[in-house]
């Protein structure tokens, strides 16, 4: 699992977080094939938004179905820690609903810093996060099993063809005349 954000999308999230500080902000990141194409801020309806976040379920459902209509996937959730580091709090861990989607956090305690996490039940593991406009190495399209077999077969056929061709182009064997004395 990894998360790849363009600089512009990271900037959008950072600006959203700075504008709302000292309250936490939240939203989702959507895209296609791990490529981020949209950052969508959502209302934080937590009782105490300075210390917590809770995404408005209605707003989320509406956006989620809209994404499906557009053929986009939910790539990550994001939220901010206006006075903290980008590390999931116990409340963050408790309120996770999608365990197969990374959770991106921006911490504003010092310089704005991002970190992404996979939260499955109470198991929290870091997710590789790339911020930049170049395709990260892991994001380069990899060949499927069928494509790999096709490539190996094409190479084998080409090799066999070369062998047959080079054998057929060999000059005829010289005629050895042995003179009998
Ligand atoms: Zn949090």
Question: How would you characterize the overall build of this protein?
Answer:
The model has no long low-confidence stretch (mean pLDDT 88). The protein has four helices and seven strands, in the order βαββαβαβββα. With 181 residues, the protein is an alpha/beta fold. The protein has one domain (2-137): Cytidine Deaminase, domain 2, CATH 3.40.140.10. The protein starts with a strand and ends in a 13-residue tail after the last helix. Residues 79, 81, 89, 92, 105 line the site of zinc ion (ZN).
Name given to the CATH homologous superfamily: Cytidine Deaminase, domain 2
Radius of gyration: 28 Å
Q: How big a fraction of the residues is strand?
A: 25-35%
Tell me roughly what share of residues is in helical segments: 25-40%
Mean pLDDT: 88
Largest sheet features: 7 strands, mixed
The count of domains is: 1
Which secondary-structure class do the elements indicate? alpha/beta
Ligands, ions, cofactors: zinc ion
Order of helices and strands: EHEEHEHEEEH
Q: According to CATH, what is the topology?
A: Cytidine Deaminase, domain 2
Separation of the first and last Cα atoms: 84 Å
Short précis:
The chain has 181 residues and is an alpha/beta fold. It has helices at 7-20, 57-69, 90-94, 145-168, and strands at residues 2-5, 26-32, 35-42, 73-81, 103-107, 113-120, 123-131. Strand 4 (73-81), helix 3 and strand 5 (103-107) form a beta-alpha-beta unit.
